[in-house]
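Appendix B. Chain record.
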Amino acid sequence: MPRLILFVPLVLFLILGALLWKGLSLDPRELPSALLNKPFPDFNLTALRNPDQPVTKNDFAGKTVLVNVWATWCPSCRDEHAQLLAIAKEGMPIIGLNYKDERDKAITWLTQLGDPYQFNIFDQIGMLGLDLGVYGAPETYIVDAQGIVRHRHVGVVTPEVWTDMKAMIAKGWADAVQ
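Structure tokens predicted for this chain:
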């Protein structure tokens, strides 16, 4: 019995070591989304630039769009902004989700930096973000013409990320598993 007790710490150490080793191989940017291959959540918010204009998911139904979660308090959102402007120039519709932000600051940001969005949903308290499972900004979703979330990218949309997203859109959704 006493010899068996000596092996318990060794076995626990080996199990803990194996778990830590497995954790090192995981990509921290890969966050699961409960909405993949499910409908974009219903919402009824207002447009960023016009607080009297209601906005719902019907406003982008019928076409594949990117939904980009952004905020003025997010330094990474500034980093990706030029890429979003380039994507918009290519003709890809981008819907902005201004997340937990101040309306005046967000409008000033878009006026100064340019506006790549067809329109912006103003989500001041973050309820739509919560329904989407947003961890923080920036996050970008591909939503197909039927309103189904096909891909989620957490982090800055770089030219390389956009190339991958375009390939997913062109091929269909078989590879959109993130």
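Further analysis of this model is presented in Appendix C.
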